[in-house]
Write a structure and sequence with these properties.
The protein is 33% helix and 13% strand. The protein is an alpha+beta fold and 382 residues long. It has 2 domains: 146 residues, Four Helix Bundle (Hemerythrin (Met), subunit A) (Up-down Bundle), CATH 1.20.120; 206 residues, Alpha-Beta Complex (paralog of FGE (formylglycine-generating enzyme)). The chain is globular.
Length: 382
């Protein structure tokens, strides 16, 4: 692997994602789950500084010792940090400061990679690149939330084109009962939550070859799905009523016509498009209304070679838990996934804003059940 080439390619893409933004856009944090774009830019640089340069690059001088407090996300091992909800209050460091920080880190990594790093350091670098790719997707989704909750609905880019829906109709794929292997296998990078590979027994089932569309979901809305408690988990029903949820995130009923916010601004809903921005609660309620269910993550992975995937992160019926034989790495890196294996639901697949080369069938994404801001959709099973 050409580490230097991969490093520069990944780092450049992060800045390209931010290039349509105005300076004011970099600082906004409308809700706790959304981080300001400038924080993402700083945090991904901090990762390389903290886990590569400071411990392994002789005579490296920290850019600013206070940045550890500002850009540490959740690593208790590394020290104190700004509370997540306060990231939007950081008017300093400035956007210009953070771009200088990125340049400083990139120059240091360039010098560091003049010599071939040891195997364990190379693995950390590859983890850092995958970490930045995760934040590239978060940048896209956070930017959409920031601009999509501005009352002017400003466009991120008029040139952005969403992928077209792959039409397979209502076809279902049958999977025979049996014992199947789950988890990452072979060469190449994976996160620790994809290990260890293990066997599961599955009853025979069928899984939809196609994702749910906007038109199909509109039928649920028009049938009073958001007002019918029978299809909702108790916690989901509380969430719907407490937050007065009546549609997917970014949908707006204007003069009896549905519109949704897109990267190109507010547009009429394209009914043939793949449904997006629904919570697990909504996905589960829709499946119940259809007399169907969501697939488990093991069913999804077993069937994944048989259909196109990648448009949406697909909610599954599986709680985010460790696989048999899962082992957390020592130190701060061990905090990457393991400590989040509670009160979250697994999503599989990828999305239209997943970075190139970052998706694979064994990838396990995870979010809380009420969240809509990711590119989340629905695939049904029975």
């Amino acid at each position: 692997m050409d580490l230097r080439g991969c490093y520069h390619k990944v780092r450049k893409l992060t800045e390209q994602i931010c290039s349509p933004l105005q300076t004011e856009d970099y600082v906004v944090q409308p809700v706790a789950d959304v981080s300001p774009p400038k924080w993402h830019l700083g945090h991904t640089s901090w990762f390389f500084e903290t886990f590569i340069l400071k411990p392994y690059f002789m005579d490296y001088r920290e850019f600013d010792p206070e940045y550890n407090f500002v850009f540490n996300s959740y690593y208790e091992t590394v020290g104190r940090r700004v509370i997540r909800t306060d990231r939007g209050n950081l008017s300093r460091p400035t956007v210009a400061d953070i771009y200088r920080y990125r340049e400083y880190i990139d120059e240091a990594i360039e010098k560091f990679l003049c010599e071939e790093p040891a195997k364990e350091i190379k693995e950390l670098l590859i983890l850092g690149l995958n970490h930045e790719q995760q934040h590239q997707e978060l940048l896209y989704t956070d930017i959409k939330y920031i601009l999509g909750h501005n009352p002017l609905f400003p466009a991120y880019s008029r040139d952005y084109v969403s992928p077209e829906k792959a039409g397979n109709g209502g076809r279902f794929i049958e999977i025979k009962e049996g014992i199947y292997e789950i988890g990452h296998n072979g060469e190449g990078f994976c996160f620790d939550n994809e290990l260890a590979r293990h066997k599961v027994y599955l009853q025979s089932f069928e899984i939809a070859a196609n994702l749910v569309t906007n038109r199909e979901y509109l039928e649920f809305i028009d049938a009073g799905g958001y007002q019918d408690f029978r299809h909702w988990h108790a916690e989901g029903w509380d969430w719907v009523n407490r937050n007065r949820v009546t549609a997917p995130l970014y949908w707006h009923n204007i003069n009896d016509a549905w519109h949704n916010y897109t990267y190109a601004g507010l547009q009429p809903v394209n009914w043939g498009d793949t449904l997006c921005h629904v919570s697990y609660f909504e996905a589960s309620a829709y499946a119940s209304w259809k007399g169907l269910r969501l697939p488990t993550e093991f069913e999804w992975e077993t069937a994944a070679n048989r259909f196109d995937w990648g448009l949406r992160w697909e909610w599954t019926e599986s709680a985010y838990l460790p696989y048999p034989g899962f082992v957390k790495a020592p130190g701060a890196i061990g905090e990457y996934n393991g400590k989040f294996m509670v009160n979250q639901q697994v999503l599989r697949g990828a999305s239209e804003v997943t970075s190139p080369g970052h998706s694979r069938i064994t990838y396990r994404n995870f979010f809380q059940t009420h969240l809509q801001w990711q590119f989340t959709g629905i695939r049904l099973a029975r």
